[in-house]
Amino acid sequence: MTDDVPKTIILSLLILTILISVIGTWTVMDRLNNVKVQYVKTSPEESVSEGRVKLNVINPDGGDIETSTATGLITLGYEVP
Questions:
Q1: Which is nearest to 52 in space by CA: 31, 23, 76?
Q2: E strands, 20-70, in order
Q3: Which residues have C-beta within 8 Å of that of residue 46, sequence separation ≥ 6?
């Protein structure tokens, strides 16, 4: 004997699936609207970038130079002729 699933159960599951889908989509869209992005505005002549610079210091007297380690922020500006 095979029993069919009643149409009310199928309809209930379909409505539940649609509700979960709508709530999930609404939650994702709400989270995306709350994302904050910071933009850096620069003029056309100015660009902002990051990089590493290695600096070798040569002692003009020819002697050894004491080694030290330091961190900091260096701003390098140059003009193109």
A1: 76
A2: none
A3: none
**Domain assignments of the chain as residue spans, ordered by start:** 1-35
CA dist 59 and 62 (Å) reads 5
**Cα–Cα separations (whole angstroms), residue 22 to 17, 28, 41, 63:** 9, 10, 38, 74
Scan for tokens 């095979």, then name that residue: 2
Taking residues 7-28, what's their average pLDDT?
94
Kindly report, residue by residue over 47-80, the tens digit of the pLDDT: 666 666 676 667 777 777 666 676 777 666 666 6
* pLDDT band for position 14 (cuts 50, 70, 90): very high
Contacts of 65 (CB under 8 A, 6+ apart): 57, 58, 59
